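WP5 quarterly update. Target: Carbohydrate ABC transporter permease. Source organism: Metabacillus bambusae. Length: 273 aa.
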Amino acid sequence: MFRSEKLYLSRIIITIYCFFTVFVLGYLVYNSFRSKQDVLTNTLGIPKEWSFDAYVDVFRIEGFHYNILSSVVILIGALVLLIFLSSMVAYGIGIYTFKYKQVVTVYFLLGLMFPVQLGIVPIFLIIKNLGLINSVWGVVLILGAGISVPVLLLTNFFANLPRSLYEAAKIDGAGEWTIFYRVMFPIASPIVVSLCIISSVGIWNNFFIPLITLQNDNVKTIPLAIMKYTGNIMLYIDKAMVTSVIATIPILILFFIFSEKVIESVASGGVKE
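Structure tokens (predicted):
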């Protein structure tokens, strides 16, 4: 009886939270189609007229499309680098047996304990010496190197794969790279897709790394562009609403499309029989 009541209470709390989240997002989108004067003077009332002026201004005058382009390039580049590095490292740790294997695993576990902010000074100096300040590729290198979580998840996946798969490929004459690229990596595709979706949120919304490495307005990411408007919210409230909508909607659509696949992959956590 107690368990059912606890479950019922949990459902109520989750439902309230969902309704509140939907209300906030809906209110954000709703206000993005209102003029600045209407939002400030008639905040909770019915708008006198709908306006697309703020959307036009952030693209035509503010050049917000450059910020979107920077965020998209960083997202795609960082995900490709992240999956490329983490899948090969995880494959090596999960499949092979070698000396100090446990030490290597602990090394990636330690990566979860130390945020990138602790090493920002040497990271900044490296990026500066590479000539990648004010370049999206500098951000791609930094964010794409955060492979601790993907390595640990993929290592567990590869370690649970039947050894017969590897041995059968070896018998057929496949080399190590062919086994990884043609056999093992395709099998891990559900986990890879889940990692892409989960990692994309952190990459898309990352504020600290672009703040340190990107200084020109044309190469700044969406979160940095939004900060320009929220710094004086009363003056730029219309543009702040519009840019916030543009920053939020793509990730929500992405999660809505792939949510079932993510849940299925996380729940399975290994090879299906």
